[in-house]
Amino acid sequence: MKTKAAFLEKPGKIEEKPLKIKELKLPELKENEVLIKVSACGVCRTDLHVVEGELGNVNNIVPGHEVVGTIERVGSEVKAQKTGDRVGVAWLYSSCGSCEYCLSGRENLCQNKKFTGFSKNGGYSEYIIADSGFIFNLPVGLKDEEIAPLLCSGAIGYRSFKLAHASPGSTITMFGFGGSAHLTLQLAKKLGHKVIIVSRNEEHLKLASELGADFTFSPKNGNIYENLKDKDIENAIIFAPSSVPIMNALKVIKPGGRVIVAGIHIDGEIKIDYDSQLFHEKLLLSVESYTRQDMLEYLRLATNLEIKPVYSDIKLEDVNSALTELKNSELMGVKVIKF
Fold first, then answer.
1. pLDDT for position 219
2. Contact 173, 252 (CB under 8 A)
């Protein structure tokens, strides 16, 4: 069986359009795997890092890990899903199942895990094969294109929010306002928090205000510390792929606050002054993927709280252009490949 896919032979700058549309042969289905006909796949910043080689030189791969589709075939050992189920496939493709992390429900830290669209062919494709133990039956009430961005952008934002341990009604500042932040803003507001958004993009700040941000600020308009130091900020989440917001956030949070770095990759060196940025029991944490429990919790929350992405759909052939817009901070919300 063959599938049409956006194929990366070797990493390259997205402006050079390294993703090529090709017909690929699907491998034989293993006992624990399912074959999924893809209906929608979100375009995520992690895909951009994969394509440009910032996560390592991965060759001959189909990116994409915010995948929604319908199961067409199941392996002989698959029990939890059946043909016809609508399911989601996300970044964490599989883990070993036997290490200390897997056995304690922290499979996101497994040292032998595999990733969709990085270790295994992903969702920039008409069909995808997935491990049945790491896919998710999806709730009703949201369209395929609405659910797709929740499977990474939303889930990573949710895990970041969880790790912040935000006090009820407290103020959270988010640095950068792309796909993940615009979903996490909705989550935080609907759970009763005040949210400040920091971004250099004026259009992004406008969208943040429309989605309920209590205050927005651009570093173009002054010193971040001077403008935010009196805002009673308990925690911050860093979505921008840069070290600069991390250092700024540590300065503006309250004693005992947390700075959570949501990105899989950042540019620049982190230089921390202990007295002004880390003292007073401040905590700096990174996020690595999500656990399956995180995803189940988040999908329930997103459905119950009616969290939806701002999105536009594209064709598979337009994915290079969409990733270029993402790189240049030209997207409003997210783009989703619709099959």
1. 94
2. yes
